[in-house]
Every structure is written in structure tokens, then in C-alpha cells.
Specification:
The chain folds into two domains: 69 residues; 148 residues, Translation initiation factor eif-2b, domain 2 (Rossmann fold), CATH 3.40.50.10470. The chain has nine helices and eight strands. Strands 1, 2, 3, 4, 5, 6, 7 and 8 form an eight-stranded mixed beta sheet that branches. Helix 5 links the parallel strand 1 and strand 2.
């Protein structure tokens, strides 16, 4: 593949880029969409172009900027995610039902195939998705549910997962739907509520996410992805 000039990314229309990847964010997740964008740009322009695009998109897609600042190539990032998600699958192996608030395909692709005997229930983080297309990307042990169904799936054999982005000490950002899903009644119904720390140690303000000021009180367990 021929590399494109790094300065070519300066001329992109950030609003046009966001329109292009908005469907990815809705159906694959913001973190996963940022990784896809990073992989695409890095393949064309290497790190210099990825950094320049992050500067251009800073106010539109801050999570992409955070991923660039971790200074890992897409291959290195993929290796770390795969290793940590493999370890996570061992933690989840004893649960027959795994409820996930928000869809991050880079994590769930691995988990659903590593745990074929478990039933997965995804609560989408966005209403702008095509259910059939989303389910077509996963094995048959995956179901999409409404947030109102979360209580009936609780119990000793169930675990609840959601995501925390850019965690620094106790502060982080979460998908807004997580506040609707994980109330006091839900916390009493699930033995484990695991927060997947997607980018620990970063502190960019994610204005398209909801701030969470006490992850320790919100999640019973935490698992670091990057």
C-alpha cells in the first residue's frame, strides 16, 4: 500500500469525517470506531498523519485523540486488547448470562466467540442502529435487549458489564445509557458489575459521553483494557 502524504489529512472536513463514521459509532461503539479510523489513517499516512488528523478532529471525536496519544501502533493496540480480553473471558467463564450495556465490537467479538456456552444480552448505547445488521456480526448466543429488561436477567449466574473511558483515579466517562441501566435496584440484583476501563490514565473531556465521578461506587469490579 502506498502511503499518502501526512499533510493531506489537514485538508479533511471534520464534519464530513464524522458523518462517515457515525454509523460505526452507533453500531460498533465509539472506542471501536476510533480504532478502525486509527488503523485506516495509520496504514495510509503512518503516525504523523494519524496525529495530524487527531488535531483536526479534536473537538469532534476526542476519543480518537486519546487513542493516538497512547502512542501505540494499531497492531500493538490490537495485541494488548486481545491479551486483556482473553483474560477477561476467563473471569466470565462461570457466568451463564452476560449482560452488556453498550456495544464495543472490539471487545465483544472476542468474548462471544470465546464463551459460546454463555448467553450474551446487549443493551445498545444508541437508538440509531439496525438490529439485524448488528446481530449478523455476532454468533447466535447474542441477543439485543431493551434497557428495561435488565432486571429480569439478574441473579447469581449473571454478570453485568459496561465501559469506562479515560479513567483518571476515580473520574471517568461512560455511555449515557449506563446511568439508566445501572441503578440501585440493578446493583442489588447482580453479584458483579464490571467496568471495563477502555483507556485508563487519560483525561481528555469526552463531551459526547456522561461524566462519572465515582467508578468505585458504581462498579463492583474493574478490568483494565488499555
Amino acid at each position: 500500500m502506498n502511503e499518502a502524504p501526512a499533510n493531506s489529512v489537514i485538508d479533511v472536513d471534520p464534519e464530513g469525517v464524522m458523518r462517515t463514521i457515525s454509523a460505526l459509532i452507533s453500531e460498533l461503539g465509539a472506542f471501536s470506531a476510533a480504532l478502525i479510523l486509527h488503523d485506516t489513517v495509520y496504514g495510509l499516512t503512518r503516525r504523523e498523519g494519524a496525529v495530524r488528523l487527531a488535531e483536526t478532529l479534536g473537538g469532534y471525536f476526542p476519543l480518537y485523540g486519546e487513542i493516538i496519544e497512547n502512542d501505540l501502533s494499531p497492531a500493538e493496540t490490537e495485541r494488548i486488547i486481545n491479551e486483556n480480553t482473553d483474560r477477561l473471558s476467563e473471569t466470565l467463564r462461570t457466568f451463564s448470562s452476560i449482560v452488556v450495556v453498550g456495544i464495543e465490537s472490539v471487545i465483544l467479538d472476542i468474548l462471544t466467540r470465546k464463551l459460546p456456552e454463555s448467553r450474551f444480552y446487549f443493551i445498545p448505547h444508541s437508538e440509531a442502529l439496525e438490529s439485524e445488521r448488528v446481530l449478523a456480526n455476532f454468533p447466535p448466543n447474542v441477543h439485543l435487549i431493551d434497557v428495561r429488561e435488565i432486571m429480569e436477567l439478574g441473579g447469581t449466574h449473571s454478570v453485568l458489564l459496561s465501559y469506562a473511558f479515560c479513567q483518571v483515579q476515580e473520574d471517568s466517562f461512560i455511555y449515557p445509557i449506563t446511568f439508566r441501566a445501572v441503578g440501585p435496584d440493578v446493583r442489588s440484583s447482580y453479584n458483579r458489575i464490571i467496568g471495563l476501563n477502555m483507556l485508563s490514565g487519560y483525561n481528555r473531556y469526552l463531551d459526547d459521553m456522561a461524566p462519572l465521578y465515582s467508578t468505585r461506587q458504581f462498579f463492583t469490579h474493574q478490568f483494565e483494557i488499555i
